[in-house]
Write a structure and sequence with these properties.
The complex is a heterotrimer. Chain A is of the alpha/beta class. Chain A is 28% helix and 26% strand. Chain A contains 11 helices and 18 strands. By secondary structure, chain C is mostly beta strands. In chain C, strand 5 and strand 6 form a beta hairpin. The mean pLDDT of chain C is 95. The chains are: A alpha/beta, B alpha+beta, C mainly beta. At the A-C interface, helix 8, strand 12 and strand 15 of A face strand 3 and helix 1 of C. Strand 16 of chain A pairs antiparallel with strand 33 of chain B, so a sheet runs across the interface.
Chain lengths: 416, 990, 87
């Protein structure tokens, strides 16, 4: 049933008894054209675009738990396309454009809210680095404004402008950046893909790959073997684990990133703000919670929880930036497992094994990439060639020295 | 108004009257009250409005699980939203306001949402507000945001102080109810270090809220005596008002102690909260149990209360929440409330038990009190506008009945409070006998006791707690005598039946705060959100400020019922820290404002300040950016003056922040050859060499100098920014990569003050300062010399290096001699108009010389990119050698370091601008590189810059655009060599 | 998390810096195809779910590099030793 105000009103008259499951909870078939491993945002978006753009509908998305149980449901919901390097910038802008039409594409309100993203700078060197980035954005038609201290103060008067250890000197603003409702993105893609014929199979854990020589021809799962002409691994923090089942080692480490939400309060902060003198970013959800986060904990982890040093670091940075949030209460913390790549940028590529494709390395920026990631992986799967805007996101760039290192931290994933 | 204070009883200080305000009205309570008990004692039952439908809400509980009675506390900069009235301690002058209502709590226009509730079901917003697309941000979302949220947070800075503290103990006991007190007593008697914490201001847990006796006296008296005993034990720390909020790896626990929330304001110097990091070898979790509400239509009306809360208000606070009560229960425990109410003189109009079978002892007692009992019956509705006036029930036979009442005490059994057992990821397990989830695998070293472990009898909890306390200290090797004994009347374990609400719809609330109803859960089941997590996310069940303490299990049981599964199979959701909400400021502690991060000052800081320095943050350091001299109009003037002063005569600059690493040992030279890309081992003693460090991935890591003071003794300098990372890197190389080498490393950054003395007259200045201590003539001490000698009884080091491009030295003295050295330089320099210069002038001069610094050493540049490829030694192995040869890093199209000058000499340059060839569109495809550093060169009379340009080395003289749309627009520039000043280096050798 | 430094005793996580894969061995620069050997060593690090040997630096302490064996799923520390053969 199509979602609209009209259908909602009609259902409200009949006790909402007419609504159908948002997606079919499918049982796996014996084989598919394409199997996507991972029922997160990226995997489901891949299925949606395979079906909708490329007409490939004999597709299964396999999820070991419930869809959206990984990073798709554990992030701070920020969307932006404020990247510097040519390997990233056009890709993330494609994502932003897809976000901008997502509700209409999916007929599902994913609450894309272009409230603006402000990156603060605290030194001349940081200002110049942001100017360089803003200029790169503008050269690709992405909106970017370099704000002075006075402009930031007008916009965010309650930041610490008087007593800060690292004074705020200005900011880089992308007005089109903002937030989206993360679970809705998962459900919206799932509903659309499912309606187009994709099987979404939950509680189906992949335990191995079916091989014919080098070629991958399917997967073994907790619900039996499933054959497929092509298999895509789209499992974020579990990428290395899955790759190991295929005998591959990836330029990826799994790290834990915590996120936090405060108790719900009346509208307090309208945009997304990132601190430039510490690891801290914050926005406010439609429900009223201040949603914030900071740096990764910094050690390899598959546990979806972190430790106190990072909690303290995040709260210290938050209070240093916005002294008023000191009295707001932290309601809940959670964590996800980030697939930290060795240059901080993602990989959408074939693997050395024919039939096996990889979408990984999203670090802590995977949510905003969801539409473009699915779009470009679908393109790669359907046509067996990289989408032009994802052409730099290759697996062999590390060996070749063609790195996409926004932060310049080198092969040290916990510093990206 | 229906509640009132009982004439006697309770643990309040009736001789200490406290005045307070709620919504502008004045009330009175007593010391020992919570805001909730004081409101109830004053007859207030309407306290708040719900999140979504703005339904009138009262007080549900007497503890931290409260979902309804949230208020704004205090005013101004201390405004504190969403405070639970049930745990807020009353103090003189307390001011609270209801929230999420307009214009008033009694008449709230937001309640119109309640009329629209047939539309505003779970997830309705996912299905609409999509057309027209622009209206989402313009109209719909602002409306949703304004309606949502609860209390207001002010925009002012929090004026209160916070601190962090550490505690190490043998046994940590969490919760000072009967089980926790018993555990702490048992453990404490062994002499072990015991920490007992409890969130309440009055330890004792349910001993204070129930009419139970221990050792022949009232439970509350027993608790008070136990507390006195514990306080007398030197190794026992009792932390009240302290919530253990999180369990972390390595037996680390986070706890929040509220030191001043029960006062109008903290005393001068007192912190509001103390955040404890507790490390405990063993833990006893005695966190009790939480009562389950019953789900039926109208169960949210003010006057409907958990039965355990009813007893707490009666017995602990001497307050009755109503005058005519109905008790509704599915368990034996609910009956206690009926008897306690009767005992307090409150009329109980009916006892409704959903069960048909009830033990005889309860029936007998009911009979004794002439209590009308309805078995196998249910409450199906409630009445009243802003508070309860009557309930509707359906008897076993189907007959309906309406009973007037202003209090409905409800009991749906208890859930063991296992939240803290799940923080490390353990899954709760379903206990079919208990009809509740209990703790799964416990964190190492943790025991769970008492009601938290499903042991609901008092005798059992005391015994269980004492045994666990004893076992904990014995496991640690303490010789404990025996467990303390308690005499308590034995009870038959009460039933704890979970009754899944058979009726009710859109007015039967499961999650009170988030307005999640039975109908919402049914809708979620219909739409496929059938797992516990999907249910939570779709309906927001359990996502309110109470984290689902009263709602999660009811919701999960309903979902299981709607989908034909067992609650056990549906599972439940583990809790995540914090257990109850924690002020963000508490976790920040004192690290806020100017104290956010430590400030590092150079030993010459005060001298520089006196000399007129303006300081700037440089990492943790504060460094002199420029010096304000009389006649300088602005900073630009100062910088120009400083550059000219150095270039024409002499200046001094504090370079103490540069990292300094002392390297010694028989293999020091071999070691440094592997660290630096260039050869160091060939450096003669008494000489300095520029050194370039790569990362193993082939990118430039850092640059600096290596000075050889003896065959086996080097002193390295690093950039300020990388000082600690270089040290870490060197230690890695020494300890991990080449442990067999004989090398010792020591960071001496803080031990030495170091000053650049630069300019054509610098030698004369220095000669005057050093006098006989050292001969710094060009012949005795040529360019790139280094020496160590005694100066005024101290060791000094001199390096003939130059960052400015002038004849220059760096003199290092022990940090304590910094000011003496600076004064000596100043005096000796007076005849030469020697000036101090800051970072800006330093930066301008290094750009004039084309030296790479922060803007160029950005982690993505290679030695070749910087024009330093010739330093990459072919004679040895070094870190980064191999991977620097990857195709992408030797690509001839890479952007390399160039100089930039404006075509129009009057034009200003901006760093961050991109190079675009003239006549091409400024697109990413046409992006040729960028400007990395700029400065105004007084020596040349125009702006200059450095940058990275594709194939830049072959494009000297080319005119292009510096494209800077975010700032200055386009500037026509010309590409030059990076070195603008004295390219042959004659001045620095002179 | 707490790590028992063999030199300083058990200390809080906040005193340590993390480097990663404790199986890292700097390849022989004279090996056949050194570029591949270095690429493999630098970029393809162990990333198991379970026991993991890893390098930690006790920077706010004795500056020892430690080789810690830790379970990446439970965060339990299984063993700690000095990373180098000698100190």
């Amino acid at each position: 049933m199509r979602y609209s105000l009209f259908s909602l009103l009609r259902q409200s008259l009949v006790g909402h008894r007419g609504w159908q499951p948002v997606w079919r909870d499918a049982a796996p078939k014996r084989g598919y054209d394409i199997v996507v491993i991972g029922g997160g945002g990226h995997g489901l978006a891949t299925a949606h675009y395979l079906a909708k753009v490329h007409g490939i509908r004999d597709v299964a998305v396999l999820e070991k738990s419930w869809i959206g149980s990984g990073n798709a449901g554990r992030n701070t919901t920020i969307i932006r396309s404020n990247y510097l390097l040519p390997g990233n910038n056009p890709f993330y802008e494609l994502s932003m454009k897809l976000w901008e039409g997502l509700e209409q594409d999916l007929n599902f309100n994913t609450m894309v809210s272009q409230r603006g993203v402000v990156n603060l700078y605290h030194s001349d060197a940081q200002r110049d680095a942001y100017a360089r980035r803003g200029n790169a954005m503008r050269m690709h038609g992405v909106d970017a404004e370099l704000l002075s201290r006075a402009e930031v103060k007008r916009m965010l008067p309650f930041l610490d402008f008087d007593n800060a250890r690292f004074p705020i000197r200005g900011g880089l603003l992308q007005r089109r950046g903002g937030t989206a409702r993360h679970d809705a993105v998962v459900w919206g893609y799932a509903r659309s893909a499912s309606d187009l014929g994709v099987d979404i199979v939950q509680n189906c854990e992949v335990t191995g790959f079916l091989r014919e020589g080098d070629r991958v021809v399917g997967v073994s799962t907790s619900r039996g073997d499933i054959r497929a002409a092509k298999v895509a691994v789209v499992v974020a923090g579990s990428s290395s684990r899955l790759a190991a089942l295929a005998g591959l080692k990836l330029p990826i480490e799994s790290h834990v990133l915590q996120a936090f939400v405060s108790e719900a309060i009346k509208p307090f902060i309208d945009t997304v703000v990132t601190f430039g003198a510490g690891h801290f970013y914050i926005s406010q959800s439609d429900k009223g919670g201040l949603v914030f986060g900071g740096d990764i904990d910094g050690y390899n982890s598959y546990a979806q929880r972190g430790n106190l040093p990072t909690v303290e670091d995040v709260c210290e940075s938050g209070v240093a930036l916005m002294p008023a949030i000191s009295r707001a209460r932290l309601l809940r913390s959670w964590a996800g497992i980030m697939d930290m790549s060795m240059d901080g940028s993602p990989i959408i590529d074939r693997t050395p094994l024919p039939g096996l494709y990889l979408n990984a390395g999203w670090c802590y920026g995977g949510f905003k990439a969801t539409p473009a990631s699915g779009f470009c992986l679908a393109h790669l799967l359907a046509r067996d060639e990289s989408h032009p805007l994802a052409a730099a996101l290759t697996l062999d760039r590390f060996g070749a020295g063609r790195l996409i290192d926004e932060k310049g931290q080198g092969a040290q994933p916990n510093l990206h | 108004m229906s509640g009132r204070r009982l004439p006697k009883g309770g643990l309040i200080a009736r001789d200490r009257l406290l005045r307070f305000e709620f919504d502008g009205k004045k009330f009175e309570g007593f010391a020992g009250d919570t805001l909730a008990s004081a409101l109830l004692g004053s007859g207030v039952s309407l306290v708040g409005r719900s999140f979504k439908y703005h339904r009138p809400r009262g007080i549900l509980s007497a503890g931290c699980e409260e979902p309804n009675a949230l208020v704004e506390l205090r005013d101004g900069a201390r405004l504190e939203p969403n405070t639970r009235a049930t745990v807020a301690e009353l103090y003189e002058g307390l001011r609270a306001r209801s929230q999420n209502r307009w214009p008033s709590l009694g008449f709230d226009l937001g309640a119109i949402n309640s009329l629209l509730s047939p539309i505003f079901v779970a997830g309705f917003y996912y299905k609409t507000f999509m057309w027209p697309a622009r209206w989402w941000e313009k109209l719909y979302e602002p409306l949703i945001r304004r309606a949502a949220g609860l209390g207001r947070l002010g925009h002012e800075a929090d004026p209160d102080g916070y601190e962090k503290s550490h505690l190490f103990c043998d046994v940590l006991v969490i919760g000072a109810g009967p089980a926790g007190l018993a555990a702490a007593l048992a453990a404490g008697r062994s002499g072990a270090r015991v920490v007992l914490c409890d969130e309440d201001f009055l330890p004792g847990g349910r001993l204070n809220g129930e009419r139970m006796e221990v050792n022949g006296e009232a439970g509350s008296s027993f608790a008070a005596k136990a507390v006195a005993q514990l306080r007398a034990m030197p190794e026992v720390t009792l932390l009240t008002r302290t919530t253990l909020f999180g369990v972390y790896d390595g037996n680390t626990f986070g706890a929040l102690e509220r030191l001043a929330d029960h006062k109008p304001v903290p005393h001068p110097g007192e912190v509001r909260h103390r955040y404890w990091k507790i490390v405990a070898r063993r833990t006893v979790l005695s966190s009790g149990a939480m009562e389950r509400p019953l789900v039926f239509d109208g169960n949210d009306r003010p006057g409907v209360m958990l039965s355990s809360a009813v007893r707490s208000y009666l017995n602990r606070f001497g307050v009755t929440p109503g005058r005519r009560a109905v008790v509704y229960t599915t368990c034996d425990d609910g009956w206690r409330s009926a008897f306690d109410l009767i005992g307090a003189g409150v009329e109980v109009a009916a006892l409704i038990d959903a069960r048909s079978d009830v033990v005889d002892s309860l029936l007998t007692e009911a009979k004794r009190h002439d209590l009308p009992v309805y078995r196998g019956s249910e409450v199906v509705g409630t009445h009243g506008r802003l508070r309860l006036s009557a309930i509707s029930m359906r008897e076993a036979g189907g007959r309906s009945r309406r009973i007037s009442a202003d209090l409905l005490s409800m009991c749906g059994g208890y859930n063991p409070n296992i939240a803290l057992s799940t923080h490390l990821g353990s899954r709760p397990q379903w206990d079919a006998d208990l009809d509740a989830f209990t703790a799964g695998t416990l964190p190492a070293g943790m025991a769970i006791v008492g009601a938290a472990a499903g042991e609901f009898t008092l005798a059992g909890a005391l015994k269980h707690g004492a045994a666990a306390g004893l076992e904990a200290v014995r496991a640690l090797g303490f010789s404990a005598t025996s467990a303390p004994k308690f005499s308590v009347e034995e009870e038959v374990p009460a039933s704890n039946k979970l009754m899944v609400a058979p009726h009710g719809g859109a007015k039967a609330f499961v999650d009170f705060q988030n307005d999640v109803t039975r109908a919402d859960i049914e809708l979620a089941a219909r739409e496929g959100f059938r797992g516990a997590e999907h249910l939570k996310r779709y309906t927001t069940l359990g996502m309110a400020t109470d984290q689902g303490k009263t709602s999660a299990l009811n919701g999960h049981a309903l979902m299981a019922a709607f989908t034909g599964r067992a609650t056990a199979d549906l599972g439940t959701i583990g809790s995540r820290p914090p257990y109850t909400p924690v002020a963000i400021g508490a976790l920040a502690g004192a690290h806020r404002g100017s104290m956010y991060r430590p400030v590092r000052l150079t030993p010459g800081h005060e001298w520089a300040r006196a000399a007129g320095a303006s300081f700037v943050e440089s990492g943790e350091w504060l460094r002199a950016q420029w010096f304000n001299a009389p006649g300088d109009k602005d900073w630009f003037d100062s910088v120009v003056r400083e550059v000219k002063g150095v270039r024409s005569s002499a200046g001094i600059c504090d370079v103490s922040t540069l990292g300094k690493i002392d390297v010694q040992g028989g293999d020091a030279a071999v070691f440094l050859d592997r660290i630096y890309a260039n050869l160091i081992s060939t450096l003669p003693t008494g000489k300095v060499r520029y050194g370039l460090m790569l990362r193993e991935d082939g990118m430039v890591f850092d640059d600096g100098t290596a000075a050889r003071f003896a065959e086996n003794h080097f002193v390295l300098s690093t950039t300020t920014a990388n000082a600690s990372r270089v040290m870490q890197h060197l230690e890695f190389a020494r300890q991990v990569l080449w442990p067999a080498l004989d090398v010792q490393l020591s960071s001496v950054t803080d031990q030495w003050a170091q000053f650049a003395v630069a300019g054509p007259r610098s030698r004369e200045v220095l000669a005057e300062v050093l006098k006989d201590a050292f001969d710094c003539s060009n012949a005795a001490f040529p360019y790139l010399g280094c020496a160590q000698f005694a100066w005024r009884g101290r060791t000094a080091r001199l390096y003939r290096v130059s960052f400015s491009g002038e004849l220059a030295y760096e003199i290092a003295v022990p940090a304590g001699a910094a000011e003496e050295c600076l004064e000596a330089l100043k005096q000796a320099g007076a005849p030469f108009d020697l000036i101090p210069y800051g970072l800006e002038a330093l930066g301008v001069m290094r750009i004039e010389k084309g030296h790479a610094a922060g803007g160029e050493l950005n982690g993505t540049t290679t030695a070749r990119d910087l024009g330093l490829g010739k330093l990459m030694s072919g004679k040895k192995d070094y870190i980064g050698r191999v991977l620097a040869e990857r195709p992408g890093l030797i690509d001839p199209n890479r952007a390399v370091l160039v100089g930039v000058k404006p075509v129009n000499a009057a034009s200003r340059l901006y760093a961050g601008a991109h190079f675009v060839a003239r006549g091409t569109a400024p697109t990413l495809e046409n992006d040729q590189g960028f400007v990395s550093s700029v400065g105004y060169s007084p020596s040349l009379g125009h702006w200059i810059g450095l940058g990275f340009l594709n194939r830049g080395a072959s494009r000297l003289g080319e005119r292009m655009l510096a494209h800077d749309p975010v700032r200055s627009g386009d500037t026509e520039i010309e590409i030059t060599t990076p070195c603008f000043y004295d390219p042959d280096g004659e001045r620095l050798r002179s | 998390m707490r790590i028992r430094c063999p030199y300083c005793g058990e200390r809080d996580l906040s005193e340590f810096a993390y480097w990663g894969d404790g199986g890292y061995v700097r390849p022989d620069p004279h090996a056949h195809d050194p570029e591949f050997a270095y690429y493999t060593a630098v970029y393809l690090r162990d990333n198991p779910a379970g026991a993991h040997a890893e390098f930690w630096y006790h920077g706010i302490g004795c500056r020892s590099w430690l080789k810690v064996t830790r379970d990446t799923v439970s965060h339990r520390i299984l063993g700690v030793e000095f990373a180098g053969a000698r100190r």
